[in-house]
C-alpha cells in the first residue's frame, strides 16, 4: 500500500527522536561559575571548620554562593555571578594555606542527575562563546639548533676522552661545531671516529699543528628535521601542560613552520595560564668540577637564591629533564618544599653510571629558563619594538653524592611550594625541545562570550522564525509538517554535537543557521515535486509517493556535494573553519534524516491509506 511505513521503521524513528531529546536537554542547563578547592596533599583534606570559615568570609564579602558540593577529591563552590570568581579565589587563598590546597577557577556543569545517568552532557563552548585566552607562540629555531649542537658536543667530548684523543677547545657558532686539537694526527683520528657516529654533519679540516681544527656543519636536511621535531615535540609538551591545567576542550595546534596556537576556553587567570604554558624551564644534572679540571671544560654558575655563591661545574651534562618520567611536589623532614623525581630507564642508567663512580663528589642541579625582553630601537626615524631572547641559568642545589642513585631521587633547595609545584608540573609534562616566545596574547572575557551566545541564539531564532513563516504560507499543512521536522532537526543536531563532544563556536552557530536553510530546501524540493505530480493528474497518494521518490536523487546529490566541501574544509582549515565544517557535516546528516524519513513518516500517518481527495499544499 502506498505511503505506509512498517511498524519497525516508525519505532526506529521514535527511538532516534527520544535519544536526540535526551542528549540535547543538558544544553538547557547553563554551567555555573565556580571555585574548585582540591588538596595538594592527601593528608590535608578540607575540614568542616575551614569550609564554614570560607562560607562566612564569602558572605561578608557580598559574594553569593548558590551551592557547595563536597567530594572526596575536593570542594566545589558554585557562585551566583561569574564576575565574583576571581575575588572568591583570592579570598579563599588568603584563608587557606597554598602549600596544602590548589584553588582554581572552574565552570561546573548543572546537568540534572537523571540526565547524567545517561552520560548526557552539554556541548563544549569555544573560546569566542565561553571566554578565555588565546596565545600565539613562536619556536626559537636557532636555539633548537644550538641545543642540539651542545648535546652533540658533550657526546663527542666523552667519546674522545674514552679513546684518549686530546682536544683543546669546543666552539659553537650558528650551525658550526668546531673542535680544536693539539696536532693533525689527533684531528684525523677524531674525524674518523666522530664521522661514523654523527652522519648529520659536513666535515672539513682547518689549520694545522697546534691550530688543527675540525669544523662540523649541520646539514640542511638535519636542520629541517630538527626544526620539525622541535615544533612537534613542543606541541606534545604544551598539550600535556594544558591537560595539567584541567581546561575543557583546549586547542593546541601548529600554525606555519614555527608557530603554535594555544586557546584555553574558560580560563580567566591569564597570568597563571601564561606562566605554565610559556614556561621554558628545564633541568641539567652536572658534576662539580675537580680542582685539576682544565678551564675549557668548566662553567661557573651562581645559585638562584643567593647570587653571591657560585660553583664550578663540568660542561658535560649527565642528563636533562627530558629523562624525567614523573615528578611531584612534597615536603622534606624539615617542612621545606622538594620535588620527587622518577627517571625513565635510560635516565636511570645514566644517573647510576655517573654517581656510582663519583661517590663523595658534589652533583649540581642547574635550572635553565629561556625568556625574552622587549627593547625599543629607532629604525628609519620610527620607534620599533625588538624582542631579544636571553637565557637564565642558576643552581638549585649542590649536594654530595652519598651513594649510587637510580631511577628515583629528590631535588631540594627550592624557594617556595609554588615554585616546587610549577617545576614538578613542567618536568611531568615534558620539557620543550626549543624555547618558545609569546608573539600574541588575546583575552576574551566571559561577558563578551555570553554576548556572542545571545546573539548567536537570536540569529538562529530569527532564521527559524522566517523559515517557519515562509513554509506555513507557502505549503500550509505540509508546511506545518516541515516546521516540526525542522525543530526535530535542530534538536538532533545539538544532540549529535553533545554526544560527540564537539566544540561549539561562532562559526559553528553559522553552520547551524545554514543547516536550517538546507533542511527546508529538501522539503521544498519534495513539496514542489508533489505539486507537479498533482498537476499532472496523479491521485493524492500517487503524487505523495512520486514526490518523495523522484526528489530523492536531487536531494542526495546536493547534500553529498556539500558534505564533500565540509570534509575538505575540515581537513585543511584551522580552528574556526573546522568548527564550521563539523557543524555543517552533522547538519547535513540530520537534515537528510528529518527531510526524507521524519516528514515522510508524519505525512504517512496523516494521509497514508486514507481516501483523500485533496491536500493543502
From TrEMBL:
The keyword Transmembrane applies. GO terms for biological process: intracellular protein transmembrane transport; protein targeting; protein transport by the Sec complex. Coiled coil: none annotated. It comes from the Bacteria. Pfam families: Sec_GG, SecD-TM1, SecD_1st, SecD_SecF_C, SecDF_P1_head. Residues 439-603 form the Protein export membrane protein SecD/SecF C-terminal domain. GO terms for molecular function: protein-transporting ATPase activity. The chain crosses the membrane at residues 456-473, 480-502, 508-530, 551-573, 579-603. Residues 306-434 form the SecDF P1 head subdomain domain. It is a multi-pass membrane protein. Forms a complex with SecF. Part of the essential Sec protein translocation apparatus which comprises SecA, SecYEG and auxiliary proteins SecDF-YajC and YidC. Part of the Sec protein translocase complex. Interacts with the SecYEG preprotein conducting channel. SecDF uses the proton motive force (PMF) to complete protein translocation after the ATP-dependent function of SecA. Belongs to the SecD/SecF family. SecD subfamily. This is Protein translocase subunit SecD. It comes from Franzmannia pantelleriensis. The gene is secD.
